[in-house]
Specification:
Length: 251
């Protein structure tokens, strides 16, 4: 039964007082993925609900390469993503305050919540199984700000390895494992040049694709806040890094 596979996408856990809420957006309106790089958040449009055209693979690759090019070398000093590492009550309070800072912030957060998925582009390689486990779970110290823990995330290392970090509140492990297995098999077939003929997705109706310039696909996440709230984000960033430090100590 693959009916719960849909819960992997376009869903998010929204921290709220007492109990979190689950946000699930309309598949028919899902047009973008969220991309994190050094604490900076971007959106890549991969589908147009208006034209019903899917962005082709080459254009998506160019959009990712553009993000790698334009992202500053230094980490984001006040990454909103760090707020997702806080406990429920702290996160709920922080996001409520962020929305009150500017009406624009609510739309920015909704864009992340409604994203098909989150893709984390790490700057570090994963040379050993221990390092790989650390980055898959917490991002370690180096990538602590490049995670959005309220959504399912595809994490890609600097040397091209990939992992899935999923939220059990959004879907069950069987769906997550099935998705991982399907992606792994598709990558293998792609390397053997017989994708998509042997893809598990080839049972779906063919889709029409379109080439789009990268600069038309990529939009940075824009949030507005004052110095006081920026200090709150920096505190959350330090808390996220401490989480990564504790994971390293347990190795």
């Amino acid at each position: 039964d693959a009916s719960n596979m849909a819960d992997l996408f376009c869903s998010a856990r929204v921290p709220s007082a007492i109990r979190d809420e689950i946000s699930r957006s309309d598949w028919g309106k899902a047009e973008h993925v969220a991309v994190l790089r050094d604490g900076h958040v971007y959106f890549i449009r991969v589908f147009s609900a208006q034209t019903q055209l899917v962005t082709d693979v080459a254009s998506i690759q160019a959009a990712i390469e553009l993000i790698l090019k334009v992202t500053p070398l230094s980490d984001n000093s006040a990454p909103v993503s760090a707020l997702t590492s806080l406990g429920r009550d702290e996160a709920a309070s922080a996001f409520t305050q962020l929305v009150s800072e500017s009406p624009q912030n609510a739309s920015a957060l909704e864009a992340v919540q409604n994203a098909i998925t989150v893709i984390c582009l790490d700057t570090e390689a994963w040379p050993t199984p221990e390092v790989k486990q650390k980055y898959m779970l917490f991002g370690g110290v180096a990538e602590a700000e490049s995670r959005w823990y309220h959504k399912n995330q595809i994490i890609i290392s600097a040397d091209g390895e990939a992992a899935l970090n999923y939220d059990r509140a959004l879907t069950d492990r069987h769906a997550a494992v099935a998705w991982c297995n399907t992606m792994f098999e598709d990558v293998q077939h792609a390397l053997l040049s017989d994708f998509p003929e042997k893809s598990k997705f080839n049972c779906l109706p063919p889709v029409k694709t379109v080439a789009v310039p990268a600069d038309e696909l990529v939009q940075p996440m824009k949030v507005i806040f004052g110095k006081s709230f920026a200090n709150n984000i920096r505190s959350a960033k330090e808390s996220a890094k401490k989480l990564g430090e504790r994971s390293e100590e347990r190795r």
